[in-house]
Write the structure tokens for this entry.
Amino acid sequence: DSILSSTPPPTLPIVNNPDEHLFRKPLVTYNNLPPITIEQLLGLRGDIPDVHSWSTNQLNEFFYQQGYEYASIVLNKLRIDGNKLYEIKREQVFHMSTLKIGRALKLWNVIEQIQQKSLLS
């Protein structure tokens, strides 16, 4: 009489909508809080700033405060200041830095959020 024998095996959900896999599912839910996506989880804490006039040192400090202390590796190597941050491409973050893929992906996600906010402003 083990607990495992009384537990039914897990079943996969039935997909009624063939396009359902195209939409990002919520990643985390906790009690009655709304679910969040991976973008929100990896994103910035607080408002997305306008960094056009920032120096490389100011960007380094900002990313450090956000928990992305390794951003300085990319920013210093590529001499990225606020203006150049809006022009940086994904490939530069991934291929021209020594960051591991996970860190590069997290950093790129934040840079992309800053770039997209500028486009919407």
